[in-house]
Amino acid sequence: MAPYLDLECQAFVDAGVKAGGPPLYKLSFVEARAALEDMQKHTPASDVTAEEIDLPVGPSGHVRTIIFKPTSAHGDLPFALYTHGGGWILGSPNTHDRLVRDLVRESGIAMVFPYYTPAPDATYPTQFEESYAVLSHVFQHGSDFGLKTDKVALIGESAGGHMAIALSHLAATRSGPPIAYQVLLYPVTDTSSESHTFTTYKDGPYLSVPLLRWMEHTFLPNVYDRSDLLASPLLMGKTDLQKQPPTLIVTCAVDPLQAEGEAFGHALQQAGVQTAIFRADGVIHDFVMLNATAGSQTSVATIELAGLKLRKAMA
Question: Which end of the chain is more exposed for a tag (fewer CB within 10 A), N or C?
């Protein structure tokens, strides 16, 4: 029996079945990226601005970064660093533009978006180091960008949620920026093993286990790296978990990553970290990112909740 999906997610899945074509993991990396770019084409909303800058940071000496702000903003704004999903391979400021603008609108804060080098052009841990370098630089030079730097927040979805957890860990262990809050939307939390929902939703719909494995193997070609705490934060012990900030986790009911996202939330709660966990019913992986499912009331409510939590944390 097919799992329940709301109208928007079911329509998206049905359209994909009707269109046919090879799965993403059968395409070249360039073709797979182009497929997502094409699917996410849209006209950006005018009530949020996007300024692109090239920061002289990271392993390569530069990271393209976009700063999103409300058009009506005056003075320095609090900010969150947004790390995007796409399996460490796909995704860009264009594919995530609508979602990030929605979050800016709901939260009233700025979003700093590091466009890290995708795999396999670079592999673990380059993307973490690039994103952390952007976080550190913007925190140290916030006034140059019209940003407040008394505290920062992190937010990411899927592989971007995975990165947000890693950045919280790096900030804590390197005496870096104070992280006030993090929002993790259907995050990857364990690349070292596969939970029972990998079996339940091995064929998706949308995100399948073969696609996940293709992404993980591309990002983490060295299997031994998958036991690192940055790569598999679900392996963290109590001491490291307690270094994580207050957290909101939202998982998808129909998603191979459901169980590991919730397990990480449970671990945080058991370690005493203020953590709220919600499972969004009737939706597939990427339901808040996909423009085709943006009209889902579950997607709308999730973005509203994330925005509210960020607004309160950064007040």
Answer: N
